[in-house]
Write a structure and sequence with these properties.
Structural class: mainly alpha
Strand content: under 5%
Radius of gyration: 18 Å
Shape: globular
Order of helices and strands: HHHHHHHHHH
Number of strands: 0
Distance between the termini: 40 Å
Largest sheet: none
Helix content: 55-70%
Number of helices: 10
Number of domains: 1
Length: about 220
Amino acid sequence: MTAIFLRYFIASLIYKLLLERFFHTKRNSFKGRSIQIKAELRWAMLSSLVFAVLCALSLLAYHYDLTAIYVDIETYSWIYFFASPVIVLFLYETYYYWLHRWMHQPRIFKVVHKVHHDSILPTVFTAFSFHPLEALLQFIFFPVVIIVLPLHPIMIGVLFTALTISAMINHSGVEIFGTGSSSKHIIGSTHHDLHHRTFKFNFGLTLTWWDRWMKTEHKEAPIK
């Protein structure tokens, strides 16, 4: 748990400092927001505990040869090695979009998702600020996917790194993608800020595709 939390905290802090250095922003400043940030970090510690337990169970499943994890790249070819994280990211994007919409059902929201939305103006520290039930629902996808889909340990690391970076970008309040073509497909802070403000739009995690397909993208999204 400690390692997961520290990785999240240090990465978030570094990103915060980089934003201040290159974008001259104080959006993630501690000043005047210490109560919010302290709450986010407390919930993040609980989320890290949930993630750690699921990681431990996944390692146990691997030990007993219950997963599809492989270590020899030639087993499935180099093409599959590089394609596998793309496949998983799309599957997870689909899972997350529909999970996220479900969590916004009023009765479910109050119990599971409200903690995350207490940060109406998110910071980089909001990225892991979840109720333990939400942390479980979000992360349970991965222990399941490694059972059914062959993945190399290196690409598992790439996946988690990419998702962590994406979460920090989305919650930072600083748009690094601008209004170019990349913001049409990749979710940045402008897109996700609108979700925290409106609660009714922009349910995607890393890609805008499902929001556009399901007509749930806010009209103020960066680009159409």
